Structure formats: C-alpha cells, structure tokens
Amino acid sequence: MSEDINDKVVYWGTGRRKNAVARVRLVPGDGKIVVNKRPGDNYFNYNPKYLASIKAPLGTLGMENEYDVLVNAHGGGLTGQAEAVKLGVARALCQLDPANRQPLKIEGYLTRDPRAKERKKYGLKKARKAPQYSKR
Predict the structure, then answer these.
(1) pTM for the complete prediction?
(2) Which of 1, 83, 97, 126 has the largest CB neighbor count within 10 A?
C-alpha cells in the first residue's frame, strides 16, 4: 500500500518474527533508519549485525541511500524486531516495484521465519526439559 504524504510517496510493509511485529514505511530520503522515533543505531544498541540485517534488502537492490526507513516495532526482543524490520523492508520494496520481488526472493528476504517459542508442557520445567530424576 502506498500513499502520498507531503508530495512524497510512502511504501508500507509489515514484518513479523517470533512475537515481534514491525510496521515499516519507506520514504524517499538519504538512508536514515528511525525505530519508534529513535535513531536506528541507538535503538538497536549500535549492533552492526542488526543494522546490517535491516539494510540487507536495500543493499541487494542498491538502494541503501535512496530511502529512509521509518519503523514502529513492538513485541519480542531486539533480534526478533530486527528480523521483522528486514521482512517489512523487503515487502515495502516489492510494493515500490514488482520487479524487485525476484532478487529479494532469491536472497530469501520475503520468507517469514516460522520458528517461534514452543509452549511449556505440564509436568516439565520448560517445553522439553524434565525435572531432575530422583531414584529415592
């Protein structure tokens, strides 16, 4: 979905990973990342792994410095949010131009990671960890 705000076209994408949800907007700009109204590098604790993950779909298409990434993220932890933002950016880039879909799909940026935390079962300490065995 795209819309015009102040004569700038905005492209939307939603990404999810574990319990994290990221609503991503791509706005023409100079490559800034803003997450929850904070600079992206500050929000992700200057971790180069997270920042590289977010910029990866833009880098694949050679658009690192053409669009600002504005994100509303909630739920999960920083890793889940970073991966959710990556999926959201990739989906927004597909809206920007349908021709972008093929290179992003080849790199695996359009696949939602289905892995999530397994539920705890009764009688166990965690999902699979059993209490310590006692012989007597």
Answers:
(1) 0.87
(2) 83
